[in-house]
Design brief:
The chain is α+β, with helices and mostly antiparallel strands and 383 residues long. The protein contains 16 helices and eight strands. Strands 1-2-3-4-5 form a five-stranded mixed beta sheet. Strands 6-7-8 form a three-stranded antiparallel beta sheet, with no helix packed on it. α4 runs antiparallel to α5.
Length: 383
């Protein structure tokens, strides 16, 4: 048995050999990764049973396909704590497998390393799955079409149909994976909701609306004190980044010296990293917000009150829009406004595509009608 300081990269790279072998972790006593000739990898804990027996025992913790190194270390530490503090044999302390299979929470934990390894947007998928709080502690096999249909109906007014469809699709993919792995029954199948309320409208702010929006944001701060909303709106208006990306930003992603934002792959819809420039307005908003946050500027740029990732901005933003008398407008329209302003100022479509991180030019072409008459200007160049 080889004693090494294990890393996740080392565990992933451990290749099968002619004979089975073990990699023992130097950080957590007794924890080791067993690599079979077939390539299967499993986490084990080696320990001596409590007195008076003191027998050497190898206990299986989990398959490495479902549990990464950090999770295996946590589990091993918990078992060892019970062994040394309570004199309890970890093998006896293990909960027997549920007859009805793992809960949704446990299934997501098992699914996470697989989906992150096989999908660029795996982290986004896992984050969406963890929003099914109603089902987290229910056996995954009991989540049927009726339960999901009930969830859809309850969330119809609160979430967009496109959002509901994406979350249900992620849930179906999870349950299908679980069924293939023999962890739960076959996934339920539900037709997609019609997209009638989620057709893209390239709504942008008129000058009067822009002035009213900024005035109401300032008035809100005067009434209730400074918070994240005004700098978040300014940053969105001047970068066009999606709300999910915005809320996932960390201060380490902001480079004040080069005036750029690094958009990490795990917070991007398409799972591709990007870098966007910051104009004067965006940079000033971030400078002011950082000065206000002071020493707390170490985690998320716009965190929740407990320092964790903020989940939403909709309620506060909708109240501001209502007071500013701006109708038929959502947070995503800030992104449309950014692209529309660029198009109306004559910025080439391929540049807008790059700034918007669009996967195809077809997505960017919806703004083409806002461009000045570039054809006429083009032929004038050869006069």
């Amino acid at each position: 048995m080889t004693l090494v300081y294990l890393t996740q990269a080392l565990c992933n790279a451990a290749a099968p050999r002619e004979r089975r072998y073990d990699l023992r972790d130097s950080l957590v006593r007794g924890l080791f990764l067993r690599v079979e000739v077939s390539g299967r990898k499993t986490w084990y804990l080696c320990y001596r049973t409590p007195s008076p027996e003191r027998r050497l025992r190898n206990m299986k913790i989990a398959s490495a396909a479902y549990a990464q190194l950090a999770a295996a270390r946590r589990a091993a530490k918990e078992y060892l704590a019970r062994l040394y503090l309570d004199n309890v044999d970890p093998a006896e302390a293990q909960e027997p497998p549920r007859e009805d299979g793992p809960t949704l929470r446990a299934l997501i934990d098992m699914y996470e390393p697989w989906v992150c390894a096989h999908q660029k947007s795996g982290a986004v998928t896992v984050r969406a799955l963890r929003l099914f709080s109603e089902f987290m502690d229910a056996p995954a096999s009991e989540i049927d079409a009726e339960a999901v249909e009930r969830w859809r109906e309850e969330n119809m007014g609160r979430l967009k149909r496109a959002t509901i469809n994406r979350r249900v699709a992620a849930l179906q993919a999870l349950l299908s994976w679980g069924a293939k792995e023999g962890l739960c029954r076959a996934a339920m199948k539900l037709p997609k909701l019609a997209q009638s309320d989620s057709k893209v409208v390239t709504r942008f702010l008129e000058e009067g609306e822009r002035a009213r929006l900024m005035a109401e944001l300032a008035a809100r701060e005067a009434r209730s004190g400074r918070d994240y909303l005004r700098p978040a709106v300014i940053l969105s208006l001047n970068t066009g980044i999606r709300k999910g990306t915005l809320l996932g930003l960390r201060w380490g992603d902001v480079d004040f010296a080069s005036r750029t934002l690094r958009l990490r792959a795990e917070i991007m819809k398409a799972g591709r990293e990007a870098v966007v420039p910051l104009n004067d307005a965006a940079l000033a908003a971030l400078f002011e917000w950082r000065a206000f946050c002071g020493a707390e500027c170490v985690g998320y740029v716009f965190p929740a009150e407990n320092g964790a990732r903020r989940n939403d901005t909709s309620k506060a933003f909708m109240r501001v829009l209502e007071k500013a008398d701006i109708k038929n407008f959502t947070w995503h329209c800030l992104r449309h406004d950014f692209a529309s302003q660029l198009a109306m100022k004559g910025v080439p479509m391929h540049v807008i595509q790059k700034l918007m991180s669009h996967g195809s030019m077809a997505m960017t072409q919806r703004y083409a009608h806002l461009s000045p008459n570039s054809l006429e200007e083009a032929v004038r160049l050869i006069c």
